[in-house]
Every structure is written in C-alpha cells, then in structure tokens.
Design brief:
- This protein has 16 helices and twelve strands.
- By secondary structure, the chain is α/β, with parallel strands linked by helices.
- The chain has three domains: 103 residues, Gyrase A, domain 2 (2-Layer Sandwich), CATH 3.30.1360; 108 residues, Four Helix Bundle (Hemerythrin (Met), subunit A), CATH 1.20.120; 158 residues, Rossmann fold, CATH 3.40.50.
- Helix 6 runs antiparallel to helix 15, helix 7 runs antiparallel to helix 14 and helix 14 runs antiparallel to helix 15.
- About 2% of the residues have low confidence.
Length: 443
C-alpha cells in the first residue's frame, strides 16, 4: 500500500509539502506530471495536473527519493506546492485516484522507517519530541537522543546480557560439563555490574520526563487566598476567573509557560476547605491529587489568616514555597513558625515581591535539572522497561547463587528482552500504536 499526507502544518501558507511513500509513488508522480520520474534528490520544477483531464492544479517542485535511500526505506516523493487549502485538497484528491493509495495514519511514515530498519524506536520517539518541542532545552534533549547516545548505552547493556545468557545456556545444554569457577564468578559479577548501571540510570530524578512533559507547578491553598490571581499574574493574562466569592475555582485550570527556556505547566486548583457541595468536594480532591503529583507546590495563604495546621503543613514538607499573599494588609511581623518555611511575602494587589517569587521558582527549576550523568530516560515507557529489567536481574542473581541455571536463564532472557524493547530489538507490535499515534499526520 502507498500512503500520502500533507507534511507541513495545516492552514494557508506560502508552500505546502505533500509526501508520498510506497510502491505506487512513481506511478503517482508520472500520472500527475505526464512525464518520467525526475532525477533522484534533485529539486525539479513540474506542472502538476488533474490525472483524468490534464487540467493544471499547480506548478511546483518535485523531489524523488528512490528506496532504500529514503526516509522510509521505500520509494518516496515530496511535492512542494503553494499552500492554499484548495490547492492541497485538489492534489490529495488526485493522488487518492491512483490504485492502492490511501491517506497516511499519524506517524505512519516514521513507523515504516522503523519497520524497514532506517531508525530505532528511541530515534523515532526523539523525532516526535523534536517536532513538538516548545523550548530550547526540549529541543536539545531531543537532538541528543536522535544522535544515538541512549541507543548506544542500552544496546551495550543488552549485548553484555546476551553474552552472559550464552554462558548460562551452554551450561544448560551441556550439564555434564562443569563451568570453570572463574566463569561462574564472571557471570555473577557482570550481571551485578549491569544491574548497578541500570539502577544508576534510574536514579535520575525523572529529569528527562520533566523536560519533555514540562515542569509541573501546582498553586494550592485555602479559598480566597489569591491563587487564581497569582496564576493570572504569572501568565500575564486572564486565565482564571477572580472573585471575592469563596470557592469560585471548582476545577483545575492549567497554563503553559516558558521560564528561562524550561517548559512549565502551572495549575490553579480549587480552594481546599470542608464543603457540602459535591462539585466543590470533587474539586478539592483534584487539588490534593495535583499537589501530590507536582514538581513544585506554591502554597498560597492569606496574610491576615494564616493557619498551617493539617493538610497545609503536609504540603509544605517537600518541594514547596509558602506564598503569603495580601501583605499590604499585614500590620505586624510574621510569626516565627512561618519564617522557618521556604517562604515569600507578596501582594498581588500592589504587585509586591512577585519578582522574588519568580526568582525562587527559577532557582527551584535549575536545582531540579542539575544532573551529573547524561539523561537517558525521556519517557515512562523507558523507565518501566528498565525497572522490569532490574527485577529480572535480581531474580537471576538469586537463582545464580543457588546454581539454579535453568530457571535463572529465563530471568536473564526477560531482562534482555526488556532492554531490547526500549530500542525495538524485539517484537514490539503491542507498543508501536501508542508511540506513533502521538505523531502528527505526515511524519
């Protein structure tokens, strides 16, 4: 089957690119231009016509990429036309008339590239991350993964386990042969080394995922403390409704910010209080869950009525800044118990000390992203496979100590399989859909 899709963004533009890949790609170009295929990888100006009537659709550039030397590994073509909606629709309509041609699914070009061995799964994911990157640090992370450092590391670890597996299977196949003591020690030592390396990779504070998905900040606290006003101030726009009526915010309101090149997601949550209103109670439950999953909590309280008992005290124990708002109404110094917390005294009404709060947020961001080792994990999928690999290696080491090689070999195979699934070295059809569906159509 031959696929086609618009590979540039939708909407009116100066130029649009329609990509075609598959065995009928050459037939599509010949039918549209009434001429032979252009020279490979040479931009060639051609008239693009209606297949049946030869009526001119547009005049544009055609680039021909014969397989296997193409992005997908198949015969592939790009048609560069003017970016009007009518022009694009007319061209796609004509391509659909060619037998065995259909519109591509999201990420299908990259999926075919993976299936044809042009790229591995990590590179495929990094391409998607590069396309969706909004900040410089996200772009740099995607580029590093594309260069193959993560793939190289995981492949090396996998190769070490495969070598160990060959020793163990040799012992199973030839039980009468005694493995030398030094070989037994090497199996144990090498598998322990791989386990330690993976545990070190896992101990990364989830920096890669935070960079990719965004640093999560939850604004939490009691009702009428100024949480929605703070969200609007940080966003420089009216994101949330502000009212003197307590309990205005019932749901979680999110906004995306770029702070010093870091992607930040700020969530305004419902004011936390006892309520008989079912909707508000659900909002409070969502607030506490958002706070639990946040990388940083801004606990906003009213300077006139500070009560840090109960849930507020729990929220302030880790990764939190106490934001004491309405300082313009404060007539006496803060209690010494409050001063022991990481805090800032602000007035949203007078725009006082907002810069101090932003500076504290930036410092927290930068501390979070200080890591000694290279970032190798960028998705939860990678982390789960590494955790599973560790579990199987621990089981193998336990059985190896008891010289139970038959059962130990299966654990070693499973550990190797989980490493392979990160880069796509084994049958991973069950995860391909979830990965490539995140792509835009045309990539």
């Amino acid at each position: 089957m031959t696929i086609y899709a618009l590979s540039t963004g939708p909407g009116v533009s100066g130029v649009a690119i329609v990509r075609i890949s598959g065995p009928e790609a050459s037939e599509v170009i010949k039918s549209l231009t009434k001429r032979d295929i252009p020279k490979p990888r040479v931009a060639t100006l051609r008239k693009i016509n209606n297949i049946n009537t030869s009526e001119l659709i547009d005049e544009g550039i055609i680039i021909w990429f014969p397989g296997p030397q193409s992005y997908t590994g198949e015969d592939m073509a790009e048609i560069h036309i003017h970016g009007g909606k009518a022009v694009i629709l007319a061209l796609q309509n004509e391509i659909s008339k060619v037998k065995n041609c259909r519109l591509a699914d999201p990420g299908e070009f990259t999926k075919i590239a993976f299936q044809n061995g042009k790229i591995n799964l990590l590179k495929a994911e990094s391409i998607a991350d590069l396309i969706s990157s909004e900040t410089e640090i996200q772009r740099l992370q995607a580029i590093k993964i594309m260069k193959g450092k993560s793939s190289e590391k995981f492949n090396k670890l996998r190769e070490k386990l495969l070598k160990l597996l060959s020793f163990v299977e040799a012992k199973i196949d030839f039980p009468e042969e005694e493995l030398p003591e030094e070989n037994l020690k090497k199996i144990k030592q090498d598998s322990s080394n791989v386990l330690n390396e993976i545990q070190k990779i896992l101990n990364d504070q989830k920096v890669g995922e935070i960079i990719r998905e965004g640093f999560k900040i939850a604004i939490v606290g009691p009702t009428n403390a100024g949480k929605s006003s703070l969200l609007n101030n940080l966003s420089n726009r009216e994101v949330a409704i502000v009212s003197e009526i307590a309990g205005t915010t019932r749901d979680v309101i999110e906004t995306h910010l770029n702070i010093d090149g870091y992607s930040v997601i700020v969530s305004d949550t419902a004011g936390i209080r006892d309520s008989k209103d079912e909707i508000e109670k659900k909002g409070v439950k969502l607030s506490l869950k958002k706070a639990e999953n946040a990388d940083l909590k801004l606990v906003v309280v009213d300077a006139k009525n500070i009560d840090l008992s109960g849930f507020l005290n729990d929220l302030l124990k880790k990764d939190a800044i106490l934001v004491v708002n309405k300082s313009d109404l404060l007539k006496e110094k803060l209690d010494t118990k409050i001063l022991k917390f990481n805090h800032v005294l602000i007035s949203l009404k007078d725009n006082l000390n907002i810069d101090v709060l932003i500076s504290k947020i930036k410092n927290n961001l930068k501390k979070k992203f200080i890591v000694e080792e290279d970032i190798l994990i960028t998705r939860e999928r990678h982390r789960q496979h590494l955790i599973q690999c560790c579990d199987h290696l621990k089981n193998f080491l336990d059985k190896n100590d008891k010289k139970d090689f038959d059962k130990g070999a299966e654990d070693l195979r499973l550990a190797t399989r989980h490493l392979g699934m990160i880069v796509g070295k084994v049958d991973v059809e069950e995860i391909l859909g979830s990965i490539f569906n995140d792509f835009c159509i045309g990539k």
